[in-house]
Amino acid sequence: MADTMSFIIMHALLALWALIVALIMILMAILCFRKDSSNRDHEIGVTNYPIAEQGMQGPPLQKHEEASRPIMFGTVVQYKNEEGTESRCTECVICLEEFKDGDSCRVLTNCDHLYHQLCIDEWLVKNSHCPLCRGSTIGYRNVIDEAIRLNSIGEESHLAMGTSGHRDLKENHWLDDGAYLMVKLLNKLASARASGKGVGSKVLTDLVEGLEEPAIAVELRLKINQNHPDLKGRSFGKYGEAVLQHLGISIASKPKLQKAPVNYEGVRVSGFGGCFLLRLSLHDPVVPLNIEAPSHEDSVKLGLEVAAAVKEFRALDTSALDKFVQP
């Protein structure tokens, strides 16, 4: 009898703990959404000052960025402050000067923070995050925009996920909100337990049990030596873009390989029953290479194609790739 009572108490405590965690996660998700909505209304001047939009992207920052990152850095606007209103966007945090009526400014797409256009454009040449909130400026908007486009033409798309694993749900207004996803997982666990369908992580792993996985899936990180003379004064971003561009040209002459016609990040190529993706890290001097194939032999064939295409880039450390393709 005592054992039965202890068992009931233990499960009751576990259920209470799960409920508390779920409530905390729900509260965090609500606060994040309210904060995001508040920021959008306050910071780009929806209620604080009228702005004259000049185009969704404005002048291109760099030619290599325009070619490889077809997404919005931010809206270019003319600043105008209305008398009698309070705006949190009163000065540019880069130059620390107050905005004046008529100033050309840029509102960053992913976080809605406002800067002088010249200040932020110069900043974004060497950085890929907002100076104020540190959020990615080139983040995952391209994936979200594609999901929105698919929904607009009748193709259901409820999840936008980037290569790095960031996921944005349609039902959560495409916010990159880990707390919201955690709440959904906890709800799934609680529902399964209440209906007697199971407990523990197996409830979640069963959801993806039928999905196929490649026999071989590897990621090799090829570092760019920023002190190497082969950079010739270029940033690691420009050097990495040159690597990707050269790879794309090389693949065009390979009959057994096919470059993806539509791809928003790096160079994606299919062949030998598998595929590879070579892309440039958003933040670090690294060019990650992902290879998926039905066998180790096929993955090596793909690796050899990449190795042959990038061998002339001496600042690129290919030691991890060289080791992978060794017989």
Automatic annotation (TrEMBL):
GO molecular function: phosphomannomutase activity; zinc ion binding
Listed transmembrane segments: 6-33
Pfam family, one: zf-RING_2
Domain RING-type: 92-134
Organism domain of life: Eukaryota
Keyword Metal-binding: yes
Name the record gives this protein: RING-type domain-containing protein
Species the sequence originates in: Gossypium stocksii
